[in-house]
Design brief:
The complex is a heterodimer of chains A (232) and B (361). Chain A has a single domain, classed as MetI-like fold (Orthogonal Bundle). With 232 residues, chain A is an all-alpha fold. Chain A is built from ten helices and no strands. Chain B has 361 residues and is an alpha+beta fold. Chain B has two domains: 223 residues, Rossmann fold; 124 residues, OB fold (Dihydrolipoamide Acetyltransferase, E2P) (Beta Barrel), CATH 2.40.50. Helices cover 21% and strands 36% of the residues of chain B. In chain B, helix 2 packs parallel to helix 4 and helix 4 runs parallel beside helix 5. Classes of the chains: A mainly alpha (232), B alpha+beta (361). Chain A: InterPro entries: MetI-like, MetI-like_sf, ModB_ABC. Chain A: Its main location: membrane. Chain A: This is Molybdenum transport system permease.
């Protein structure tokens, strides 16, 4: 690791940790919401659709502010969580992961939803005539056939989480080693006179991990696509 | 007994069926497209819900609107074969076959089904690498392996081209003969039905027109509109009593002293369903002497049916209590001055045995 300074390594590892946790923890909800939007009909569906997509169009500062108000330690939900479960999001990396997850959620849901809509419901019907209940049909037919969409949704969300800046700095501030991810670290260097070189180094790191994750996702996506269509 | 008594509104047409189908052999549901065949079979399988009525299989009530019973598809114990095979693309052939198999499913039944449908070589392959006929065979095997009480087949041959149909039909025939499993078979092809079915239900724009044993339904004048002149034919069941190996011909006895020769060497004692196309039958007043035709049978003219158009008329002939139809030209009818009730001789040029006769459907 002699290539990178300790400071850069810390920011890089934190970024990866925040993005991974955000993607993994929001995935079950993303799949659930995508399935509901793709398959169910109920009054208020367009409202749910709108709420899910809101973080995509709201300024990230607004998302951060809303998180601060609701999930901060004195926020209405945050205080309850802290009081009863001892979970606190304020000014910790968990808060950064939450902010990243909220902002990336619509991207994940959109990709998975499209993939659910593309699954042939006649295959699900056939599975039911073969004696499979709804749950078995979901886990053995719908979900595996949606796998390519789930992978691309995760990759999109992961990339969005790595780049998250506005809502993170609003919600959990810019604390070195705790919430200072690569974008925040870069922002700090740019604000500091004479640290242009360090900012440029971080810029290169950001480009490299983005490229690596793009290539990895393409490779993974191809494999999953082949598996789902039974060609390997 | 499979008891059906249902009503369902389908767009403009009302599907209304009250019928009992036997729980043995193959029962065909026949009708033109849009007649409601698929909707009916979907109702039997639980994929569609009727507006009212009931469906009962033996002692088990599958649907009863008045008692609010509607078993889900997975609870009905009915296997379903769709027109498009609907194999799961992410499972191999053996994965597809095992998908609905009961956990304590018998190993023997797996081997039997694989052997019956000729699937041994396909087991490790994926659906993407199968031909249409192979896919459909796997789909049939998959449905059989759920060990159903009733097998529903919705036009399993309709999406296949003629060579594939010819390839798949013998498997279906073997299956119908060897498995003691009642099958409901939807088709718009009378030829397929002739090959396979024992019982037939005819639907026309949602209404049941006919329901009964195949040979009875076949002779009903109500079925005539569905048969083109080339398709009009009579069905006769008989047993093989004599064979002439040197000429490769077999004799079927229709009654004690009337018999029919067919151009095929058949095992003695076997029961055969012979189909005689009306265009292959001609009549004459005197028994023709020194004719090349082997089948000259004494008959009585029991009815003359003239079509409004076309050059042909249909003669309904009584052949020792069985019905034989003959098509002759209107010109011949006028010249011979045929009278209902008069004795005639029917000359039969060709007899097809339903197992070897899949005409272009």
């Amino acid at each position: 690791m002699s290539l990178l300074t300790d400071y850069e390594v810390a920011a890089l590892l934190l970024s990866l940790k925040v993005a991974s946790v955000a993607v993994c923890c929001s995935l079950p909800f993303g799949v659930m919401v995508a399935w509901i939007l793709a398959r169910c009909r109920f009054p208020g569906k367009s409202l749910l659709d709108g709420i899910v997509h809101l973080p995509l169009v709201l300024p990230p500062v607004v998302v951060g502010y809303l998180l601060l108000v609701s999930m901060g330690r004195s926020g209405w939900l945050g205080s309850w969580l802290y009081h009863y479960l001892g979970i606190s999001f304020s000014f910790s990396w968990r808060g950064a992961a939450l902010a990243a997850a909220v902002v990336a959620f619509p991207l994940m849901v959109r990709a998975i939803r499209q993939s659910f809509e593309a699954v042939d419901t006649r295959l699900e019907q056939a599975a039911r005539t073969l004696g499979a209940g709804r749950l078995k049909v979901f886990f053995t037919i719908s979900l595996p056939l949606t796998a390519p969409g789930i992978v691309s949704g995760m990759v999109l969300a992961f990339a969005r989480c790595l780049g998250e800046f506005g809502s993170t700095i609003t919600f959990v501030s810019n604390i070195p080693g705790e919430t200072r991810t690569i974008p925040l670290a870069m922002y700090s260097f740019i604000e500091t006179p004479g640290a242009e070189a360090q900012a440029a180094r971080l810029c290169v790191i950001a480009i490299v991990i983005s490229l690596v994750s793009l290539v990895a996702s393409q490779w993974l996506g191809r494999r999953v696509q082949l598996r789902a269509s039974g060609q390997c | 007994m499979l008891t059906i008594d249902i009503n369902k509104q389908l767009g403009d047409t009302l599907l209304q069926v009250t019928a009992e189908l036997p729980t043995y052999g193959v029962s065909a549901i026949f009708g033109r497209s849009g007649a409601g065949k698929t909707s009916l079979v979907n109702i039997l399988g639980g994929l569609a819900t009727p507006d009212s009525g009931r469906v009962q299989l033996g002692e088990r009530v599958l649907f009863d609107a008045s008692r609010r019973i509607n078993l889900r598809p997975e609870q009905r114990g009915t296997g379903f074969v769709f027109q498009d095979a609907r194999l799961f693309p992410h499972y191999s052939v053996s994965g597809n076959l095992n998908y609905g198999r009961p956990r304590r499913g018998r190993k023997t039944s797996f081997d039997t089904v694989v052997e019956l449908l000729g699937l041994e070589k396909l087991l490790p392959r994926y659906p993407a690498a199968l031909s249409g006929g192979e896919k459909q065979r796997v789909a049939i095997g998959r449905a059989l392996l759920t060990e159903p009480e009733l097998l529903l087949m919705d036009e399993p041959l309709a999406s296949l081209d003629l060579p594939r149909k010819k390839e798949l039909l013998p498997y279906l025939q073997r299956m119908a003969e060897e498995l003691k499993l009642p099958i409901v078979y939807v088709s718009h092809s009378l030829d397929e039905i002739l090959q396979l079915a024992d019982h037939m239900l005819v639907l026309d724009s949602g209404k049941m027109v006919l329901n009964g044993a195949l040979e009875q339904v076949w002779d009903s004048p109500l079925l005539r509109p569905w048969q083109s002149v080339q398709e009009q034919s009579s069905l006769l069941s008989a047993r093989v009593v004599e064979t002439l190996p040197s000429y490769e011909m077999s004799r079927l006895d229709l009654t004690q002293d009337i018999s029919l020769w067919v151009n095929k060497l058949l095992p003695q004692g076997e029961s055969i369903r012979a189909r005689i196309h009306s265009n292959q039958v001609s009549v004459c007043r005197e028994r023709p002497q020194s004719t090349s035709i082997r089948n000259v049978l004494p008959v009585t003219l029991s009815a003359i049916e003239t079509a409004e158009t076309g050059q042909y008329v249909s003669l309904k002939l009584d052949l020792a209590g069985k019905v034989l139809w003959a098509n002759i030209t209107r010109w011949a009818l006028d010249e011979l001055q045929l009278v209902v009730g008069e004795p005639l001789f029917a000359q039969i040029k060709g007899v097809s045995l339903t197992s070897s006769d899949l005409a272009a459907a």
